[in-house]
Amino acid sequence: MSLNGKYSLGIILAFTLLALAMLYSIPLINVITDSKSINTHVFFYSRIVLWMIMSLIFCYNAVIEKEPFFLWREKRYSLFFYIGTVVCLYFICAVGGAFINAVIMTLHREQISNKLIQLQSLFKGNYFLIISICLTAGVVEELLMRGYIQPRVEKIYHSPILGVLASAVLFGILHSTYGTIGQVVIPFFIGVVFAIFYKLYSNIKILIICHFMYDFISLMIMNFIDIKHLSSF
Fold first, then answer.
1. Residue 181: partners with Cβ closer than 8 Å, 6 or more residues away
2. pTM for the model
3. Quick check: helix, strand or coil at residue 77?
């Protein structure tokens, strides 16, 4: 198999495993643990599944591809660059996401995600769960979507634009399990912003920090305010 073929198989494997985890990890854990509904333990175990998937992709990369995991060399920047970039990326995603959601709710009259409403009770006062969820999303999703998939798509098709779009589209599709248009379109927008940044600056650590911060602030808001009263969600 050619190297591009190995890259293609790795991309398919990474996305398929993530999609299966998003769809079926909680039902499967419910069966194994004999739980009747989603609780904090079940949700925490489902995050461990994502770490396991990332480990499998690392193994695939080391054993099958036999290439560096990061095809783009990680660049170093000053502390002030880190701080300023994280803040800028956060506000671009937060303001852009809120605007997109407002447009969707105006045109489509879309209801708030029932899954988010259901999960809100799990986050109430459970800061360990909130931090573990945000850390998992920041590390696993950025390493696989931007660090792994994006550069390989670009290298296979010799197209930076396709690399950006492919990683953003897959990122949006992964969030479709929340059951609303906004939960696909907004992650797609964030995916485009993050992918463009990664192409320009080749620093995955900044994206992990920003992703963590975006999710953490969102979940902390949900922790203190009823999500039904937050149209920006």
1. 104, 108, 110
2. 0.91
3. coil
Compute, in degrees rounded to 10, the torsion defined by CA atoms 168, 170, 171, 174. 160
On whether the CB atoms of residues 227 and 233 are closer than 8 A, the answer is yes
Residues 6+ apart with CB under 8 A from 145: 167, 170, 171, 191, 194
Q: How far is CA 47 from CA 30, 91, 107, 180, 215, in A?
A: 14, 26, 34, 22, 14
> Where exactly are the structural domains of the chain?
3-229
54-98 tens-digit pLDDT: 999 999 999 999 999 999 999 999 999 999 999 999 999 999 998
In 3D, which of 224, 213, 49 has the Cα closest to residue 131? 213
Nearest Cα neighbor of 202 from 68, 72, 69 is 72
In 3D, which of 89, 94, 91 has the Cα closest to residue 232?
94
